[in-house]
Design brief:
Rossmann fold, 15% strand, alpha/beta, 11 helices
């Protein structure tokens, strides 16, 4: 276990590769932990010449929890946001982006490539827009812009997001809810065995079971609102990656994100759902790593 103090909280992190190589920071999505990154993805990226940094977002894993803030009523927050009202949250996506900067400072990383999935995609979007001088390149993966005009996810995926109706009061109940959610968000072309799915759910539960943190992270996403104006300020080299078969965040949201970032590359992956299965690692490593290499190569040519 490795932790640092940054931005007023404790952040648990791990690294792969050599500190002398260009840093690549991977940011997880809602309620997931650093252990959810496939090890073969980390190994491939480190093998491409990157110092890979992974970490637990606030309110998940072994990083600081905000239990004293309680669990907000998500439906009430959604209604307030739709009505244009001000909503109170424990923290914001901007705070979570600042956590990444604090982690970089603690690791003496001046600039880094950043790649985030789902909520992590929103976090790296904010990083690229508001901390562009610290970001070498940005990859927004299976994320959207917050544009309310984009199509919603399927009803089953939206319910699975917050594990609606699940009883997480027992270990087995929480594990079964995790497994049920992961099945709904699965990638049809890149399957995960039921054995591996259960093993990860058990490992994640036993490392950290914090359903309130998942709800507070969801509240931060709602608070973030429509980020289209923010995306239009991004000048960092960017790419957007999205699964054609994503049931939670419709691929139209990926297109919208790319359309609102000047010069962004867009990659639609057939058979990819809303997850990072081990079988997808070579595809993601190639897209993330080759893009970052290209950006670094172009920078060297300009210097």
């Amino acid at each position: 276990m490795t932790a640092i103090r940054a931005n007023g909280i404790t952040i648990e992190y791990e690294t792969r590769g050599r500190p002398a190589d260009p840093a690549l920071i991977l940011v997880r999505g809602l309620g997931t932990q650093l252990i959810n990154w496939p090890e073969n993805l980390l190994r491939l990226l480190a093998g491409m010449g990157f110092y890979v940094v992974i970490f637990d977002n606030r309110d998940v894993g072994l990083s600081t929890k905000f239990d004293e803030a309680g669990a907000p009523d998500i439906n009430a927050l959604l209604a307030q946001a739709k009505a244009g009202g001000e909503i109170a949250v424990a923290y914001t996506i901007e705070d979570m982006a600042t956590d990444v900067i604090g982690l970089m400072d603690a690791l003496t990383v001046e600039t880094a490539h950043v790649a985030g999935i789902s909520m992590g995609g929103a976090i790296v979007q904010v990083l690229a827009a508001k901390h562009g001088g610290r970001v070498r390149s940005m990859a927004s993966i299976m994320a959207q812009s917050g544009n309310p005009e984009t199509p919603p996810g399927t009803p089953s995926a939206m319910a699975a997001l917050m594990r609606a109706g699940a009883d997480e009061s027992t270990r087995e109940g929480a594990i079964e809810a995790n497994i049920a959610t992961s099945r709904i968000l699965a990638s049809p072309k890149y399957p995960t065995s039921e054995t591996d799915r259960r093993a990860m759910a058990e490992q994640a539960h036993d490392r950290c079971n914090c359903p309130g943190g998942r709800i507070r992270q969801r509240a931060a996403i709602i608070k973030s609102g429509n980020r289209v104006p923010l995306l239009q300020t991004i000048a960092v080299p960017s790419q957007v990656i999205h699964g054609i078969d994503d049931p939670l965040l419709n691929i139209a949201g990926g297109w919208d994100t790319a359309d609102n970032i000047a010069g962004a590359d867009f990659h639609a992956i057939s058979g990819m759902g809303h997850e990072t299965p081990a079988a997808l690692s070579p595809v993601l490593a190639d897209l993330i790593g080759c893009f970052a290499r290209r950006v670094d190569g172009a920078g060297m040519e300009r210097s």
